[in-house]
Amino acid sequence: MRTKPVLTDEDVKIIAAAAEAHALEHHWNVTVAIVDDGGHLLHLHRLEGAGASTAEMATGKARTAVLGRRETKVYEDMIKQGRVAFLSAPMTAMLEGGVPIMVGTDLVGAVGVSGVKSDQDAAIARAGIAALGIENT
């Protein structure tokens, strides 16, 4: 048996605050979702002005990043390159903006963001994770 790191309530607050600060700094109306390593929702905040659908999409991106243990951009790129069979995978949001949170080789959760361009969503998620001060690989 081994010991595995997990996200604490404080970690979630740090990630959320940093992600939302990054979004607000750029005047981006988004939803930020944070999930644990099982894809269970720990945090969801739809910033003022973000569309209603962004709550579902951000949550889906976070869950997809956890299930796949990789950024959701990987799936978006595969589909764009013609691997459309991937659309039948049991993941709900294969668009850029979902970023897994890794501590060494351990997956501890993910951040999903929706509301602006996909690369901007991902930048917000990465800004939140960076606030933990870990090497997220």
- The beta-strand count equals 4
Mean pLDDT: 94
If classified by CATH, what would the architecture be?
Answer: 2-Layer Sandwich
Give me the side-by-side strand order of the main sheet: 2-1-4-3
Task: Give the H and E element order.
Answer: HEEHHEEH
Q: Provide the CATH superfamily.
A: Haem-degrading domain
In total, the number of domains comes to: 1
**Named CATH topology:** Beta-Lactamase
Global morphology: globular
Organism: Caballeronia glathei
Protein name: GlcG protein
Walkthrough of the structure:
The protein has 137 residues and is α+β, with helices and mostly antiparallel strands. The chain has a single domain (9-130), classed as Haem-degrading domain (Beta-Lactamase, 2-Layer Sandwich), CATH 3.30.450. It is 39% helix and 20% strand. It is built from 4 helices and 4 strands, in the order αββααββα. The protein has helices spanning 9-25, 53-68, 73-80, 118-130; strands spanning 31-36, 41-46, 98-103, 106-114. The protein has a 4-stranded antiparallel beta sheet. Strand 3 and strand 4 (106-114) form a beta hairpin. The longest helix has 17 residues, at 9-25. The chain starts with 8 loop residues before the first helix and ends in a 7-residue tail after the last helix.
Features:
Beta-Lactamase; 4 helices; 39% helix; alpha+beta; 4 strands
How would you sum up this structure in a few lines?
By secondary structure, the protein is α+β, with helices and mostly antiparallel strands. It has helices at 9-25, 53-68, 73-80, 118-130; strands at residues 31-36, 41-46, 98-103, 106-114.
